[in-house]
Amino acid sequence: MNPFREDLVSRSRPEPCSIVIFGATGDLTHRKLVPALYNLAVDGELPTGVRIIGFARRDKSDEEFRSGLEELNKKVSRSGHDDEVWSHLAENIFYHKSEFNDADGYKSLAERLDQIDEERGGKGNRLFYIASAPEFFDDILIQLKNAGLNEAKDGCWARVIVEKPFGTDLATAKHLNEVVNSTFHESATYRIDHYLGKETAQNLMVLRFANAIFEPLWNSRYISHMQITCAENLGMEGGRGGYYEKSGALRDMVQNHLLQLLSLVAMEPPTDLSADGVRDEKVKVIRSLRQWDTPEKVAENVVRAQYTAGHVDGKEVLGYRQEDRVSPESDTEAYVAVRLLIDTWRWSGVPFYIRMGKQLPKKSTEISVHFKDAPNVLFGALTGGVPGGNVLVIRIQPDEGISLRMVSKIPGTSLRLEPVKMDFHYSTSFGKGSPEAYERLLLDAIAGDATLFARRDEVEEAWRFIDHIEHAWHQSDNPPPMAEYVAGSWGPKEADDLIKKDGHDWRRL
Q1: Which terminus, N or C, of the chain has the lesser number of Cβ atoms within 10 Å?
Q2: Are 101 and 231 in a shared domain?
Q3: Which residue, 235, 242, 227, is CA-closest to 353?
Q4: In terms of Cα–Cα distance, which of 376, 377, 402 is closest to 388?
Q5: Where do the Glucose-6-phosphate dehydrogenase C-terminal domain residues begin and end (predicted)?
Q6: Enclosing domain of residue 111
Q7: Are residues 353 and 278 in the same domain?
Q8: Nearest Cα to Cα of residue 321 among 244, 232, 231
Q9: Final residue of a domain: which of 121, 147, 163?
């Protein structure tokens, strides 16, 4: 008899549906969403009968829309481009022109969806993907409700995926949540964070809870501290300066991606693997964050910075304030480092450090778990002592994998110690590359599995923490200063000082 409960691992099968993408002429649709659906088709994962309807404001025919998607798919698809597979997929790709606030456009969309189902034998399941600019989120949701498209037909379902940013602060997030939940039930709402679709992020729970060598050590008794780093070696290319001026590193990356990773490494074991079972534990972590709710606490625990002119990858680059669409007097951070404390029994006294920056030496996202040193009574007298402690590194991107640093004796007649590394790479260990994050997330939404999507309370608790920092930076009488670092370096001296206060150093990537 199988000792495991089947209900802990069961998952609904993805069913045929119509996927309506709002903002279908944008970069996200062409570079990520449609290539993800294509790769699912290549792997045999996409249910037969899935239809893709692009909804946007530009004039295009079905054929023009398909042709543009095919052209970019040939360039970006991880599995290459197979003309036969694409031909079958393209037969079920359509384009619908409408303004986002035009009621008639949604009425005709409903009619067209019914027509497609009738002609091609569809079931009537609907997945709406809001990939437009954030200012249109409200309009799209309200018009879907007015047209009755939010209501599932008998035996069918209607769901919505909402892209980031999900609000710009707690107030706007609450407002958007009210609009979403007045249109779709929370169980049918999927707030997407593509970091959670990455293979290594999904593997965090398995690493922690399925390995007896780690699970008993995952607490304040054995762990000194953790670091989460997101380094980017790009600046404001492609006119991104205008967007970044409104967001900054804290709101663009920390509020969603990095706090989500934090919740996965710090959460308690869930009661089961259901979506709410996992998300219940994640939100407890965010709710347990000690609040940096005064300018003094923010100055002590958070560093913000902008890059100055320098060299990245051998190329000369501008400083942040000289970038296109960036104000010469900008007070928007392109780098942020945060020291966090989680006030729970498991993590009492263990600092977590998060850093994110633009124009750093390389592109990399990783989590490093730094274990406490072993007692130094045996090897302390050796020349050089014991060279550092054990560090578990979880690489999220680009080279997904896990490594463990430990100490070993150097071969020879004398007793000398040196750190060595055990390394695991997804691509080599399993003989194939990891699927793109959007592939897993789209398939989960089609299957009705919300585990890797943010719940309403997760989003709001994260914004509650971030708002205190933003208020200290932009609304207090004595805001903390803006630090600077040379492009191509690993960040400002102030960030090094932040972690050194606790006796630690940033891990060199």
Answers
A1: N
A2: no
A3: 227
A4: 376
A5: 205-507
A6: 6-163
A7: yes
A8: 244
A9: 163
Q: What is the CATH number of the domain that holds 41?
A: 3.40.50.720
Binding residues for NADP(+): 57, 99-100, 164
- Flag whether 291 is in a domain: yes
Q: How far apart are CA 325 and CA 245, in angstroms?
A: 8
* One-letter identity of residue 475: Q
Residue numbering of the annotated binding site for substrate: 194, 198, 232, 252, 358, 363
pTM of the model: 0.91
CA dihedral sign, ordered 235, 236, 240, 246: positive
Check whether residue 218 and residue 71 sit in a common domain: no
Span 198-243, pLDDT tens digits: 888 888 999 999 999 999 999 999 999 999 999 999 999 878 899 8
Q: What are phi and psi of 301, to 5 degrees?
A: -120, 0
Reading phi first (left if > 0) and then psi (alpha if -120 to 50, else beta), residue 400 is in beta
**Residue 243: inside a domain:** yes
Q: Please state, in angstroms and as integers, the Cα–Cα distance from residue 484 to each residue in 335, 340, 490, 495, following that order.
A: 9, 22, 11, 10
**Domain total of the chain:** 2
> Which residues, other chains included, contact 466 with Cβ-Cβ below 8 Å and sequence gap of 6+?
169, 250, 251, 254, 255
Residues 460 and 333 in one domain: yes
Which residues sit opposite 341 in a β-bridge?
A: 351
- Measured between alpha carbons, how far is 464 from 146 in angstroms, rounded to an integer? 32
Task: Give the closest residue to 368 by CA, choosing from 357, 356, 353, 358.
Answer: 353
**Are residue 156 and residue 26 in the same domain, yes or no?**
yes
Asked whether residue 485 is domain-assigned, the answer is: yes
Within-domain flag for 399? no
If 0-12 CB within 10 Å is exposed, 13-18 middle and 19+ buried, where does residue 127 land? Answer: buried
The enclosing H or E element of 162 equals strand 158-162
pLDDT confidence of residue 433: 63
Residues 111 and 229 in one domain: no
Give pLDDT < 50 ranges for the chain.
1-10
DSSP H or E run through 130: strand 126-130
| N-term to C-term CA, the chain | 47
pLDDT of residue 223: 97
Domain CATH code at residue 333: 3.30.360.10
Asked if 118 and 241 sit in the same domain, the reply is no
**What does the DSSP 8-state code read for residue 7?**
G
Q: d(Cα 212, Cα 200) in Å, to the nearest integer? A: 19
Which parts of 235-325 fold into alpha helices (H)? Answer: 241-249, 259-266, 275-287, 295-301
For the stretch 115-141, pLDDT in tens is: 998 887 777 899 999 999 899 999 999
Token duo for residue 192: 């997407």
Query: Residue ranges for the binding site?
Result: 57, 99-100, 164, 194, 198, 232, 252, 358, 363
Q: Is the peptide bond before 398 cis (omega within 30 degrees of 0)?
A: yes
- Find all residues with CB under 8 Å of 64, minimum gap 6, and list them: 95
Last residue of a domain, one of 137, 163, 189: 163
Instruction: Considering the candidates 96, 225, 257, 370, report the single residue annotated as catalytic.
Output: 257
